[in-house]
Amino acid sequence: MAGFLPRIYDAAMKPLEKTRFEKIRAGLVRKAQGRVLEIGFGTGANFRYYTNAERVDAIEPNPDMSKQADKRIKKSRTPIDTYEAIAEELPFADNSFDTVVATLVFCTIPDPVKALEEIRRTSKPGAQILLFEHVKMDQPLMGKTQEALTPVWKKLCDGCHLNRDTLELVKQSGLDVQKVSSHYGGLFLTIECRNPS
């Protein structure tokens, strides 16, 4: 069973790499500058898009996922260091990062409020926080469907919450939300924030 989820994840993402979905992800990650923290790098799908970063420190709690990322690290033009760590307990000093990136990961973090506190702690005042996440939809029928499916979905998909309202959690965290873009009928959002000074 070990290694099963990373292979399935990569297979599912492969058809999306040339699509609008992947263009959204790439466009967001390319905005990352300076010293970058990536939360939940998974199989390293973002690594090739770090064209403006000086270096990337990337965390991932699942060692099976991180093994899949090795070949992408070797191909990257940007120095990338990886750590087996959780978002709720980041192994970095205060005020370390110019940019924090998280794509398709906040749905699986067990304590997203604590993770956002850690992002604020480890990012510099004025640092940019770039998120691309699937969220609970505003459309009532779809939102109810997501609620009904979440208990089973969490078991099948590494703890993924289909019904998580990540935007509201970000707003409550004290981050300064500067831009929110909706994609695929509101199922996915890009959220661009700043860590207040």
TrEMBL record:
Top-level taxon in the UniProt lineage: Bacteria
Keywords: Methyltransferase, Transferase
Gene3D superfamilies: Vaccinia Virus protein VP39
EC category: transferase
EC id: 2.1.1.-
Domain Methyltransferase type: start-end pairs: 37-130
Methyltransferase is among the record's keywords: yes
Any GO BP annotation: methylation
A GO molecular-function annotation: methyltransferase activity
The protein's name: Class I SAM-dependent methyltransferase
